[in-house]
From TrEMBL:
<dbReference type="GO" id="GO:0005829">
    <property type="term" value="C:cytosol"/>
</dbReference>
<keyword id="KW-0547">Nucleotide-binding</keyword>
<dbReference type="Pfam" id="PF00580">
    <property type="entry name" value="UvrD-helicase"/>
</dbReference>
<protein>
    <recommendedName>
        <fullName>DNA 3'-5' helicase</fullName>
        <ecNumber>5.6.2.4</ecNumber>
    </recommendedName>
</protein>
<dbReference type="InterPro" id="IPR014017">
    <property type="entry name" value="DNA_helicase_UvrD-like_C"/>
</dbReference>
<dbReference type="GO" id="GO:0003677">
    <property type="term" value="F:DNA binding"/>
</dbReference>
<dbReference type="GO" id="GO:0016887">
    <property type="term" value="F:ATP hydrolysis activity"/>
</dbReference>
<keyword id="KW-0067">ATP-binding</keyword>
<feature type="domain" description="UvrD-like helicase ATP-binding">
    <location>
        <begin position="35"/>
        <end position="336"/>
    </location>
</feature>
<keyword id="KW-0413">Isomerase</keyword>
<dbReference type="GO" id="GO:0000725">
    <property type="term" value="P:recombinational repair"/>
</dbReference>
<feature type="binding site">
    <location>
        <begin position="56"/>
        <end position="63"/>
    </location>
    <ligand>
        <name>ATP</name>
    </ligand>
</feature>
<dbReference type="InterPro" id="IPR014016">
    <property type="entry name" value="UvrD-like_ATP-bd"/>
</dbReference>
<dbReference type="Pfam" id="PF13361">
    <property type="entry name" value="UvrD_C"/>
</dbReference>
<keyword id="KW-0347">Helicase</keyword>
<dbReference type="GO" id="GO:0005524">
    <property type="term" value="F:ATP binding"/>
</dbReference>
<keyword id="KW-0378">Hydrolase</keyword>
Amino acid sequence: MQMTANLHRKRLDFAKKSARAWQNYFNAHGLLPNITLSPEQISVVQQEEDQMLINGSAGSGKSLTLLYKLLKVMEQENEPKRILYCSFNTTLIEDARKRIEQSHKFHEIKEKHTLHMKTFHNMAAETLREIGFKNAEFLRINLENLRRYEDAITRRTIALVDSFMESEEYKKLPPEQKLYKTHAGTFLMDEILWMKANGFITEESYYNCERVGRGNNPRLTKEQRRTIFKLYEKYHELLKKQFHDHLDLEDYALLLLKHYEDIPESLKYDYIFVDEVQDLQAMQLKALVGLVKKSIVVSGDPKQRIYKRSPFSYRELGLHIEGRKTRNLRTNYRSTKQIMKLASSLQFLDEENDRFDDQRFVREGKKPSIYYFQHSKELNHHLVKQIKTIQKNDPDSTIAVIHRHDADKHGIYQCPVFGELNRNFDVVTTSQYGKRFDLNKQKKPIFFTDAFSVKGLEFDYVFLIHFDRNHYPSKKRIEELDKRAGDNKNSDSYNADYDAILNDEKKVLYVAITRAKKEVQLMYTGKNFRSISPFIRDFYKEDYDAVGFDSSIYSK
């Protein structure tokens, strides 16, 4: 009798679940032009959780799956909902907006809800202004603006350190709390921003924290942290008195968390969707978890993390995504098998290196090519010729040229490659992407972009210039490490920091290569072919075509 009752209850539960699943079934067919989701992706779209992580390597359709989950919510929620779709950088938000605008279904249902597609910073600025922080500013998040922002902070911290070192207060400090010469303005800027990004804004929390992601050079003792915290407090006094209560970008999340009780329910979100979650700072993600009322879905790929790391786990930030709440997309729908074979051969120190054999591919194509040119004019000529051929043979295609110029906008416009491209084609830079890059145009402009701003985007053809030892890895980052290390360059701590930079720089290269759907070419110039990036040693010579140099010298 008991067994019969249990069986009846199980059948009833199954029937209820089946009915609920059928009721919530979402027809994803034909929502976006030329897109057909795989069964794997559809399964993720249909699954409903209060918190969820979509993991996947580059090209696995994470962003697309996230957009479909957004459309599912918008169609199935009958009552008006407040929804946020956010990411770290502006270009990715602009691209998501362009893609969803292509959906007829979206235009049918968009009036039903309030949808915000914004970067974290602009969402936070809007919310903070609503609760009285009129000094919260809107900012276009791209490499150029981030560099300008960091330069301004560096100037302030250099002046602050110099002034403090000369003060009576500093001279009276115990010897163990005094700083080294290498604890200069740039170091202090990085340290202060890292403290804020991870919420270590009290003396004790900073004193006791693990400085994950901050490296070992210059060395910083526990007692010296007391002095750094004094400088942190003086830095905030400086902002208040001399810079009209200016807010650093890292302050936005901290203010949302501090004033959480002041945020009315009407400003919180029923649903939040986060793309490229690995690029958000810890406190930004924690703030988002606090702002959601019903469900938050995040997607990301740790191999594409090219911003600073954090000591926190997802659980510590309020995301409980164990078990079935984490879904992994393993099939690559973007890049050809040949492109991903090259990218996957890059060896990372801090992430599990995916076995290439474990990945699934639906596209085959040409092997990637690596070109050496002695002079930049030769590279420019080759680039123009290649693009003209593509536009003739594949006129609907999208093309990106990925550079590693410093983020000065005027410097980009004056560089020879950009000038040559601009004379021959319609060229769009990162700052123009939202307004001028039209997915519906047959002949699309050439996208000239840095490797940071291209994250999350995809193009049929990618030309990666600057594949030389000065740009992969960034010579500037190595020089900054050397400056911080001082006389400490032969130490284990220096070697660990150097390896960490190489690891980050490989991720930049991985992101750049994996933007390509059909073909990718890497190019470099120099007095001789030996100026190539040392990262070529991670590649197998049979995985690419070498032009202008002998690949057997370098490759495995």
